[in-house]
Amino acid sequence: MSIIFHGLPTEAVRALQQGGPDAYGMTAERRVSDGDGVPCRHCLTNVGAGEGYLILAYRPFPAVQPYAETGPIFLHADECPRAPEAAELPELFTRTKDYILRGYSADDRIVYGTGSVTPTPEIRERAETLLQRPEVAYVHMRSAKNNCYQCRIELDQEGKSNGVAI
Hints:
Layout: E1 3-6, H1 10-17, E2 29-32, E3 52-58, E4 71-76, E5 98-104, E6 116-119, H2 123-131, E7 138-143, E8 149-155
Antiparallel strand pairs: 1-8, 2-3, 3-4, 5-6, 5-7, 7-8
């Protein structure tokens, strides 16, 4: 079994970088990074010192519904390449000791009993275990301290990936 870590889709990110509205209908706030703690959810790297970044509300779900959590994220203010879809945990995430992993169904509802704070070295194994469950279509990785969305994890195309745009 192979899992894939996904950054945010480029089309959605470009719209936000060009001034499009966030999940609350607002224009993103612009700031300048000090080089620490500003992870871009598109390229899955830290925004470098002196580089511009955006703070905005993001809802990683296709529609508003009771389980569609919305929260703050960071993006590079200027275009950046989307992180390659990879089976390995992106290096950005190795600097933090743990994250929340939570499984979601194909209709974007939380699958109860799947959420847990997971030590970083165990993320791949935990995600694979969750994705083996037939009711789990994908997994979100979120900050264990602030619950901020980090990335989406799915099975590769040879697994049971549901093919839903993220």
